[in-house]
Amino acid sequence: MKSIVALQSIVTPSSDGLEPSDAELNAIEWEMPLILADVDLLDAEIAVLDRTPSDLDAQRIRRARRRMLTARRVLINQAIGSVLAGAA
Fold first, then answer.
1. What is the pTM of this model?
2. Residue 60 CB neighbours (<10 A)
3. Angle made by CA atoms 70, 75, 77, in degrees to the nearest 5
4. Contact 68, 34 (CB under 8 A)
5. What are the φ/ψ torsions at residue 76 (nearest 5 degrees)?
């Protein structure tokens, strides 16, 4: 009887270039507030896909949108500040 077990090296590829670099992980960590705000906004929007939004739903969406815009503004200001600091 022939063995059908896969070889480990074929199933688990080598990690050459497959793992995120430290710079990529730092960029993700830096953008995490915006990512979480986007997720909150998506959650609020998904919750009302199959029904008419109530006043409470509309308020939840507005708040989530404001948090997302605030997080985006903060990240843009930080990026501009670091660029200007680097140019000086």
1. 0.72
2. 19
3. 95
4. yes
5. -65, -45
For residues 64 and 34, the answer to whether their CB atoms sit within 8 Å is no
Q: Where are the alpha helices (DSSP H) in 1-88?
A: 8-11, 22-47, 55-87
23's tokens: 């710079």
Q: Are 68 and 40 in contact (CB under 8 A)?
A: yes
Q: What is the chain's length? A: 88
Dig out the tokens for 43 from the structure. 């959650």
Block residue for tokens 């074929």: 10
- 33 alpha carbon, distance to own chain's centre: 8
pLDDT confidence band for 85 (50 / 70 / 90): confident
